[in-house]
Amino acid sequence: MNFRLLGLVALLALASGAASARGMVWQVSDADNTVYLAGSVHLLPPSAYPLPEAFERAYENAAIVAFETDIGELQSSATQTRLFQAARYPDGTGLEDHLDDALYARVAELLDEMGQSVSALRSFRPWFIAGMIEVQAFMAEDFRQDLGLDTHFHERAVDDDKAILPLETLDRHLAVLTKMPADMARDYLAATVDNVAALTDAPAAVFDFWREGDAAGLAAYVEEQIDDTPALYERLLFSRNDDWMEHIEALLAGSDDAMVLVGTLHLVGEHGLIEQLRSAGHRLERVE
Questions:
Q1: What is the share, in percent, of the chain residues with pLDDT greater than 70?
Q2: Residue 79: which of 193, 215, 157, 175 has the closest Cα?
Q3: 145 close to 6: Cβ distance less than 8 angstroms
Q4: Which PANTHER family would you find in this protein's record (predicted)?
Q5: Which residues contact 181 (CB under 8 A, 6 or more apart)?
Q6: Which secondary structure element, helix H or strand E, spans residue 149, and what is its range?
Q7: Which is it for the CA torsion 254, 243, 7, 77, positive or negative?
Q8: E strand or H helix that includes residue 274
Q9: Where are the beta strands (DSSP E) in the chain?
Q10: Does 229 score more than 50 pLDDT?
Q11: pLDDT score at 5
């Protein structure tokens, strides 16, 4: 399994018709160029295409396409091997040694319901188990990483010989999970198990927010999750947004139009990139 990072599986959803789709795309311009901010989903079903026109317009106008990290390197077999190695406990201990009995029992029961065996997965860390539970729930609904927006636009950018910019190094990208503190990783797994029932209901609702470009609705929809685990979202989203602002400002200071494609949750809400750019004095407009 190609274990993709961040942008959160909660943003994956069942696709509907494209006719009235608006999409999550904004633009900010200065005297000599435009930077487009586009909200990505990392897995999609085949029926998600064609994309809302706003994405196509942003891509066609961009000479530079920026992604969260180096997508080609992230998807390489070497990186996947490295990630799986980091996901395993190196000292012979297992999941049961790092969770309390109640949480371990809940994880074991859920994995059994999914056709998995906790004994076969006991060597993996909690953050990996949490991500696997989320991803498999959506893969069961025909969501595929090869159809995600990152892969889609990265392949096109390579074919079209556009300049490609990673917003963070691969090491930084992987460390968001691989260097996650143990207590936070346990909280992540516990929250995933607690909310697993919602995985069957959330996709269609969240997809509608994304497809129709309802940033306020999406931000409100996930606010409760952020309130429940604020430190986790600080790590997954907010601190990275702060780091990426430097790169976005540099793109604005340049002369080439650029498309910045990041997980949609990085854009919306009071800590999102859109609000940060507005606070920095930039005027943003929706791309229709």
A1: 90
A2: 175
A3: no
A4: CYTOPLASMIC PROTEIN (PTHR40590:SF1), CYTOPLASMIC PROTEIN-RELATED (PTHR40590)
A5: none
A6: helix 149-159
A7: positive
A8: helix 273-279
A9: 25-29, 34-40, 64-67, 163-166, 258-263, 284-286
A10: yes
A11: 41
What tens digit of pLDDT does each residue of 45-103 get?
Answer: 787 789 989 999 999 999 999 999 999 999 999 999 999 999 999 988 999 999 999 99
What are residue 178's phi and psi, to 5 degrees? -65, -25
Length of the chain (residues): 288
Say what the pLDDT of residue 18 is.
39
Question: What's the token pair of residue 207?
Answer: 């997809």
Give the pair of three-digit tokens for residue 95.
Answer: 């999941």
What pLDDT is recorded for position 7?
Answer: 36
Taking only the tens place, the pLDDT of each residue in 246-265 is 999 999 999 999 999 999 88
Asked whether 13 and 267 are in contact (CB, 8 A), the reply is no
| 32-to-66, 88, 200, 206, 244 alpha-carbon distances in Å | 18, 49, 46, 35, 21
When computed from its CA atoms, the radius of gyration of the chain, rounded to whole angstroms, is 19
pLDDT value at position 8? 40
| CA distance linking residue 141 with residue 164, whole number of Å | 31
- Helices in 75-125 by DSSP H: which ranges? 77-87, 101-113, 118-121
Residues 6+ apart with CB under 8 A from 286: 22, 25, 26, 27, 54, 213
Q: What value does the mean pLDDT take over residues 171-184? A: 96
The residue assigned the tokens 């992604």 is 67
